[in-house]
């Protein structure tokens, strides 16, 4: 059975819902409204949103991916899933969509994906490892709350 989720590119009309999900998801290093607007309009950023269709579609998750002309790796900059939608496989569904999009990018430039994750984020670490990401670096006091992070990478075959 196909999940009742719809993934699409984010738009400036999503700003309020993106900011609400960001504030509910993170108590540190939050992306502000101005930054979300910049990312939505940037040619080197892709904002993906997951909605549950309906009359007032619920924003279930988002992910931001950054690309650079001088890098073959896309960077997963941020990803959040609403608390009500966690544990349903939405994050995995979204990340698989992004990985497939990167692998089939129009210019064929994507050689893989990189990301940073808090060492204490066991759910995120589990998901990334399940999808083939490997830890490449330990990042001491990487986050604004001085917690450590990991840099992870997935190289496309």
From TrEMBL:
Pfam entry (one): Acetyltransf_1
Coiled-coil blocks: none
Molecular function per GO: acyltransferase activity, transferring groups other than amino-acyl groups
The species this protein was found in: Aliidiomarina maris
Domain (N-acetyltransferase) ranges: 5-157
Keywords recorded for this protein, A-Z: Ribonucleoprotein, Ribosomal protein, Transferase
CDD domains named among the record's database cross-references: NAT_SF
Entry-linked Gene3D superfamilies: 3.40.630.30
PROSITE patterns, A to Z: GNAT
Any single Gene Ontology cellular-component annotation: ribosome
Name the record gives this protein: N-acetyltransferase
